[in-house]
Amino acid sequence: MSGYGRTSQSNSCTPSGVISTRCGARGGARGRELWIIGIDSKKRELVDVCGTIDPKLFDAKIRRKYADTDAGFMADAHLPLGITDVKADAFLLNVVHFGKAEDFLYPLMVHELAHYLDQIDEDPAASDKDKNNAAAMLIAMAPNVRNHPSHNHRWAQHLAVGARRLVTDGRGGHKTIKEFVEAAIPAYDRRPGWDISIKQGMTDGTS
Ligand SMILES: [Zn+2]
Fold first, then answer.
1. For residues 99 and 58, which has the higher predicted lDDT (pLDDT)?
2. Residue span of the structural domain in which 90 resides
């Protein structure tokens, strides 16, 4: 039930607890809430983005876990918080990234959404090319990041599928899958000097 956020520095993706605000309507497609949480690294605080927060949820130990992360996604966030009257998933985003451009935010969000889809055991339905791209990502990652259980093959395949779809749709400001995934797995999370060796360019990776 842990979420894992991409780190903002050279340390590895860190396990996450969660804290949140309750945003949006109750009872969406999955009968759940989505909580949006800001991470304020300077103040070492979690920020209630759009709702009323229960201060009891801002446990110091959980705040520390998120202090240096760019973002995180966590399925079943209600469980570690001991909340029984609602089911919720939580998306966390560092406040320094609020308002940034799509070419930064889309890869970051697809990285985190891939963690979420992996956490809820979703099948990525990856093509052979997606699987190749996913393997190339994993090989390029720094050992301390790659070794984290959250950076597994299913996560990488979700990321590869998401990257292909967004590049194909012309969203997010990246012309190639390689550009997109190198934004999603930035240099500080890769082996020193390593690119992600995706040869394919546009759309389905054939051009
Ligand atoms: Zn990650």
1. 99
2. 3-98
